[in-house]
Amino acid sequence: MTQPPAVELRGITKRFPGVVANRDINLTVARGEIHAIVGENGAGKSTLMKILYGMQRPDEGTIAIDGQHIDLRSPTDAIGAGIGMVHQHFMLADNLTVLENVVLGDEPRRGPRLDIAGARSRINELADTYGFPIDPDVLVEQLGVGERQRVEILKVLYRGARILILDEPTAVLVPQEVDELFRNLAELKREGVTIIFISHKLDEVLSVADTITVIRAGTTVRTVEPSSVTARQLAELMVGSELPTPETRDSTVTDQVELEVRELTVRADDGRTLIDDVGFRIRRGEVLGIAGVEGNGQHELINAILGIDDPAAGTIRLGDQDITHWSTRDRRDAGIGYIPQDRHREGLLLASPLWENVMLGHQARAPYSKGPWIDRKGARQRTIRTIADYDVRTPGPDVPAYALSGGNQQKLIVGREMEASPTLLIAAHPTRGIDVGAQASVWERLRQARADGLAVLLISADLEELIGLSDTLHVIYRGRLVAELDPATVTAEELGSYMTGARAEEARP
Q1: Measuring CA to CA, which residue among 45, 49, 85, 340 is closest to residue 200?
Q2: pLDDT tens across 231-277, in order?
Q3: Backbone angles phi, psi at 291, to 5 degrees
Q4: Domain ABC transporter spans what residues (predicted)?
């Protein structure tokens, strides 16, 4: 007799004010498989999983677990049905041990007393069974990111989960930790655990999943096996059209220099040289790309141009003005826009509404202020316009920034900076951590702004992005610019050899 699927969702629809997050979704997950769900940021993946975990209730549709229709009113109901969820942002108490975090809310008792010995034995048994080597008595604050994720997985296994939902589980992991996670997932699968894996990293999905379901604009569009599709085909299913590229070849470069950096040197507090005699020019209508392995001075270069760090030597000119010793605010007011590499730490106030986030860095200017006072009406109107113009998918300007998907957060930041009409834009990893649809939107905005005369300093780890968007390409290595390359002819392999120093000496200007 054929076993019923572990999970069967039929006709799931979920509406929020102004937004249909899920529309008539159908999903079947077989027992003991790794089933990936992919889609653009904001496509409805996380909402669907929150419904399956009982955090939200569908407006329409049915849920069946192991062939039995159930009504999930809360995560407690989901846990009772054998469903566990590991969220992208971990929910652990740093000042408690692994054991205390795992049993928190489900403390074992022997009579009136806590059965700590029994809990420790159970955790060790689970760790051994699923290949999760971890000390139950170590404080969570002493663990790395990958180890913390294993603690989260142990928490749900401890509660008897047979169906495990992982929401963007590799988003915060380094490559070695990703490999370790995939080994853990393979062991869980061998032990009969069903895994639902949400991601937009298509190469990872193709390597780990047994089945892949694509969600686009809130509905399921296709379920495929990894052997039947390429990453590019999967991406095209996600966006619903041919996959865009960053390719830009029509020159819009003018003769007018917007940024000139001369003999710039930056030193650390201990005297180490972080930026060594760097110089370059960016003209209006030009994208100057800087390639380099992270940690070779890119961050310090940005901070020096923004006025966050003082240079030890050299000059920085914006247009016809020497801004070397200007404050960051004066530089921003003079026309420097900034898309930061870490949108959460540097780009957004996550708990604040969108209209406050759109003001950041521009709050002393119209339409955000009238004299010394904040103009809430003006700020909200500008935010509404930015949401519409940059396709930020949200119910409105009063939603907190943390409620947006990563791609929509990034589009809001891009909109904020572009709407301020900068003359120079510093774009640091502008498409990091976002899906192909949001990536294409950011590329198109950069191309349009370049055509309108914007000067762009582009720093990225995505070599295709650098080669495709840049008019001029420099390589930074150990704080020095070691090569100037032609994006029209250089290959990713050649660029990589300069970035690692293999060809640095022969190409140094």
Answers
A1: 45
A2: 888 888 887 766 556 666 678 889 999 999 999 999 998 999 999 99
A3: -105, 145
A4: 7-242, 259-503
- 189, 209, 239 — which closes off a domain? 239
Picking from 400, 421, 442, the residue at the C-terminal end of a domain is 421
Helix axes 175-190 and 116-130, enclosed angle (nearest 10)? 100
Residue 397 and residue 290 share a domain: no
- Per-residue DSSP letters for 283-320? ETT-EEEEE--TTSSHHHHHHHHHTSS--SEEEEEETT
Cβ neighbors of 371 (< 8 A, separation 6 or more) are none
Burial of 107 (0-12, 13-18, 19+ CB in 10 A): exposed
Is the torsion defined by CA of 482, 336, 443, 429 positive or negative?
Answer: positive
Range(s) of the domain holding residue 361: 344-421
For the beta carbon of residue 283, count every other beta carbon within 10 angstroms. 19
Angle formed by the axes of helices 145-158 and 116-130, nearest 10°: 110
Give the tens place of pLDDT for each residue, 102-136.
998 877 777 778 888 888 998 999 888 888 888 89
Asked, for residue 248, whether it belongs to a domain, the answer is no
